[in-house]
Amino acid sequence: TADADLAGRHVVVSAGGTREPIDPVRFLGNRSSGKQGYALARTAAARGARVTLVSANAALPDPAGVDVVHVGTAVQLREAVLKAAADADAVVMAAAVADFRPAEYATGKIKKRDDKADPTITLVRNPDILAEISADRARPGQVVVGFAAETDDVLANGRTKLERKGCDLLVVNEVGERKTFGSEENEAVVLGADGSETPVPYGPKEGLADVVWDLVQERLV
Ligand code: PMT
C-alpha cells in the first residue's frame, strides 16, 4: 500500500447500526458496534483521503482528521450519506441499516395493561440506500461498496446481493462468535461486479479495511 494513495479523494463511509424508535424508550436495532466502519474511516484518512464518516449509534470516539456526522435512524443515515456522496469518489456502506421501521411512533411509553390485547408493531420498509446510490451515481466513476453479514450460503447470497444492489464491490462477512458484529476482528471475501473474489483472512478490522481501499483505489478513475 503506497502512502497517501487516496490523497485528493473524498470518501464516504457509513458505520454502526440504525435505531428505529418505537416509543420514547424503545427502538428496533442491531448488534453493529461501528468498529468496521470506523476502521475504514481511519485507514482512508491515513492514506490521505478526505473522509466523511456517517455514524449511527456507535459508542466510539470520533477519529482524528475525519468529518463525523452522527445519525440515529435509516432515514437520517440516507440523508447524510446522500449529501456527503454528492462530491465523493467512493462510498462504502459498512453500516447495518434496518430494512424496516415501525409504521408509527408512540409519543408516550407503550404500557403493559391486563385489560388490553398484546400490542402489535406494524413495520414499513426503509429506503435501500446502497441500491439507490448504486443506481444513481452522484458523479461518473464513483465507486460504491456494500457490506453483507450473512449466516449461511455466504458466497451465493453475497453474489445475489451484489447483483440486486448494483454496487461495484460487496464485502461478505460471515456472522460468527469472534468476527463481524462487535469484535475487533473480521474475515471476509470481497466480491467484485467484474466477477473477482478477494479473500481476506481473519485479522484486525483495519486489515480488511486496507484491502477494501486497495480494491477501491484500483477502480478509481
Ligand atoms: O459494526 P461492527 O460491530 O464492526 O460490525 C460490522 C458489520 C458486521 C456491521 C459490517 O461488517 C457489515 O457487514 N455491515 C452490513 C450489515 C448487513 O447485514 O447488511 P445488509 O445485508 O442488511 O445490507 C447490505 C448492504 O446494504 C449494506 O452495505 C447496508 O449498509 C446496505 N443497506 C441495507 C439496508 C438498507 N435499507 N439500506 C442499505 O443501504
Automatic annotation (TrEMBL):
GO MF entry, a single one: phosphopantothenoylcysteine decarboxylase activity
Reaction(s) catalysed (UniProt annotation): N-[(R)-4-phosphopantothenoyl]-L-cysteine + H(+) = (R)-4'-phosphopantetheine + CO2; (R)-4'-phosphopantothenate + L-cysteine + CTP = N-[(R)-4-phosphopantothenoyl]-L-cysteine + CMP + diphosphate + H(+)
Required cofactor names: FMN; Mg(2+)
Cofactor-binding details, from the entry: Binds 1 FMN per subunit.
Keywords attached to this entry: Decarboxylase, Flavoprotein, FMN, Ligase, Lyase, Magnesium, Metal-binding, Multifunctional enzyme
Known function: Catalyzes two sequential steps in the biosynthesis of coenzyme A. In the first step cysteine is conjugated to 4'-phosphopantothenate to form 4-phosphopantothenoylcysteine. In the second step the latter compound is decarboxylated to form 4'-phosphopantotheine.
Any one Gene Ontology cellular component term annotated for this protein: phosphopantothenoylcysteine decarboxylase complex
Residues included from the entire protein: 180 to 400 of 400
BP GO terms, sorted: coenzyme A biosynthetic process; pantothenate catabolic process
Region (Phosphopantothenate--cysteine ligase), start-end ranges: 11-221
EC number annotated for this UniProt entry: 4.1.1.36, 6.3.2.5
Protein name: Coenzyme A biosynthesis bifunctional protein CoaBC
Positions that bind CTP: 99, 109, 127-130, 147, 161, 165
Family classification: In the N-terminal section; belongs to the HFCD (homo-oligomeric flavin containing Cys decarboxylase) superfamily. In the C-terminal section; belongs to the PPC synthetase family.
